[in-house]
Amino acid sequence: MNDSTETIEEFLAQHAFDVEEAIRKAAANEIMPRWRRLAAHEVDQKSGPHDLVTDADRKAELYLTEALVALLPASVVVGEEAVHANPESYRAIRGDAPVWIVDPVDGTRQFVRGEAGFCTLVALAHRGTVLASWTYAPARDRLATAQRGKGAHLDGERLFAGVPEAGQDLRVATSHPDYTTDEQKHALLGLRTDGVAPRPCGSAGLEYLAIARGESDAVAFSWEAAWDHAAGLLLVEEAGGAHLTLAGEPFRIAGGNALPFTAARDAATARRVVSLLSSGA
After folding, report:
1. What are the backbone angles phi and psi of residue 223, rounded to the nearest 5°?
2. Beta bridge pairs of residue 142
3. Of residues 153, 173, 49, the one with CA closest to residue 108
4. Which terminus of the chain has fewer Cβ atoms in its 10 Å neighbourhood, N or C?
5. Which residue has the higher pLDDT, 268 or 178?
6. Contacts of 171 (CB under 8 A, 6+ apart)
7. How far is CA 260 from each of CA 172, 189, 222, rounded to the nearest angstrom?
8. What CA–CA distance (Å, rounded) separates 278 from 281?
9. CA atoms of 67 and 198, how far apart (whole Å)
């Protein structure tokens, strides 16, 4: 195939279901058999005790890498675990080839604790634009999908984020303090004000899904890793939501964003959250 957006759209029209099947099989073969059955030697730390990786993460990413490139031979994969092993591979997001952005187990801490709040995230991007995404919560067997310009869906039903309820506190999930700099902590303090109910986030992918479903109003995150955000940001956009960085610009998956940033149910809420973050910075 050539690298035109039209050709990628044709690929999605023909193979979106095949991508779904690959994600479900990765979860069935490599993730769920290890859920609540992890041995101590199957869990390792990366940057610290709050940054975990398991055999499920590694093996599911390898499965997806092989399956997705087989479906779209001109593509490359940027996966969380592969980038940890070779940080230079992250640069593929800025390249000309279609790129699969993969987080095999988003919410690894929850997975290790035996909780259901984890998911597999896959996004297909081209030249910095996310064109399609899949968010699969295998413990709950729920699949959310989005295609640019074609809406967001959960188990086949269209998602609409709506707007926050008037007079109610904004429900905002925020970065865990372990993943924030001192400057970002100050910015997030701007959310501790009347009319806002901040709380620590869980799985980023599931937080984005909660916004797309109208169950949460916004997130405020302080890190850029594309595998955590690409799938969910498209899901929120296609459900009618918006995202903005501290500079008032949409988040860029290729990086270089002013942090923290927000994704919200609607543009007005995104602007409000950024204003509060700016007041705390």
Report:
1. -130, 160
2. 137
3. 49
4. N
5. 268
6. 164, 197, 199, 216, 217, 218
7. 13, 11, 4
8. 5
9. 39
Report the predicted TM-score, pTM, of the whole model to 2 decimal places.
Answer: 0.94
CA dihedral 60, 66, 70, 75 (to 10 degrees): 90
Locate 258 and state its tokens: 């002013």
255-267 per-position pLDDT tens digit:
999 999 999 999 9
Confidence of residue 1 (pLDDT cuts 50, 70, 90): very low
- 144-163 burial, b at 16+ Cβ within 10 Å, e below that, comes to bbbbbeeebbbeeeebebbe
Identity of the residue numbered 9:
E
**Taking a C-beta distance cutoff of 8 angstroms, is the pair 275, 250 a contact?**
no
DSSP assignment of 102-165, as one string?
A: EEEEESHHHHHTT-S--EEEEEEEETTEEEEEEEEETTTTEEEEEETTTEEEETTEE-----PP
Nearest to 192 by CA among 276, 92, 120: 276
Cβ neighbour number for residue 170 with a 10 Å cutoff: 21
Q: Tell me what percent of the residues of the chain surpass a pLDDT of 70.
A: 96
Here the tokens at position 28 are 């069935």
The pLDDT, as a whole number, for residue 50 is 66
pLDDT of residue 2: 41
**How would residue 43 be classed by pLDDT, with cut points 50, 70 and 90?**
confident
Both tokens assigned to 263: 């994704």
CA–CA separation, 110 and 181 (whole Å): 23
